[in-house]
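Allow me, if you will, to draw on your knowledge of protein folds for a short while. I have a record of one protein: its chain in single-letter code and its fold written as discrete structure tokens. Kindly check, if you would, that the fold set down in the tokens agrees with what the sequence suggests. Thank you for your consideration; the sequence and its tokens are set out here:
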Amino acid sequence: MSKESSKTELKRALNLFDSTAISIGAIIGAGIYVVTGVVAGLAGPSLIISILLAGVIASFSALSFAELSAHMPKEGGGYEFTYSLLSPYVGFLAGWMWVFSNIFIGSAVSLGFAQYLAAVFPFLEESVQIVAAAVCLSFTLLNLVGVRQSAMVNNALVVAKIAVLAFFVAFGLGFVQTSNFTPFAPRGYLGTLEGAALIFFAYGGYARVTTVAEEVKTASRTIPKAIFLGLATSTLLYLLVGFVALGLANWQTLEASPSPLADAIAFTGNPLAVLVVSLGAMISTASVLLMAILGVSRMTFAMARKGQLPSFMNKIHPKFQTPYYAILITGLLSTVLVFGEFSRVVAVGTFSLLFHHALVNLSATKLKAEFRRYPVFVPAIGFLFCFTLLIFLSQDAWLIGIAGLLGGSVYYILANRIPKKQGI
């Protein structure tokens, strides 16, 4: 594999607001607007507990990401952490599964956008996947233009979608029916745990900012703050929105809906509110898609720079100063996957994300005492929590996730057998 090049450098252009917006932008989207319906089918009204459990589990991993990013603020985030603290092979697997996860996440949020667009324009119901592919391609091109331009668009999207969710909570609260919360766990607390595993998909973006660390100003201080601000804001919104959604529509209604928040607010009898929430869903999913492509392209850039992916993946565009091959390839792969089943795409994305976060927690346990900000039991608990949630994912998620893991291992072994003079 080729040696890391010192010529592949990125511009530091992102401040704390930009960085926090990247975290929030990557978190709030398809998870709350679309996956809520899927999780309601598993957990019923105990969806609230599922959201809280997933948030607690995410917070332990967030502590690991925060202390590691403060210690080594490099492009690639969890990949760089595991590469340096565990081994190049484990680092490769962490990066590979992050890429695998976010390609699926990009597809899922594209589908979420298209489903809410179809809720506003019913004639698109038969063309949801085509619309999703067009949206995915559009945001791939936006990422190609530059991180600062992407961040500016994302900042506007984040402000707008928080405003829409605040509207959903404030307007819908007066129409909440407490009878919708009984029985609280119709499928038992196993369903609640299964729901927590799947809703973790909605929290995965809190660490997205670590993948663009070399583009963040004073990264060692800014990134930890951005992670916690993004996670705290999103968790509070998730709990409030989940409560109001269940109070407006029973869990069976949410389960059956491809656009659950729009259908929930429809119980107020106000069509304008339905339109506002649907537009908010499109804004939110667009923001997550933007950050998914941004994050995965930077991860492949970091891996290629160390010679663990083909060298052309770390080439910087002379005009836009972005890793254009990495952006185009990952964006195109996400586009192809929009033609898969939504629930399966979400489950596979969640499996890969949990696997990646488990490895990051493991690497945090190896941090030397002088660089440690939190007790070693914090990342140890985060590691155990991540693997516990994996148990409650579907068989399809395990089969496809393991296939992706094995595929990455085979690539790594074959790549290391190629003589270095040939490159990769």
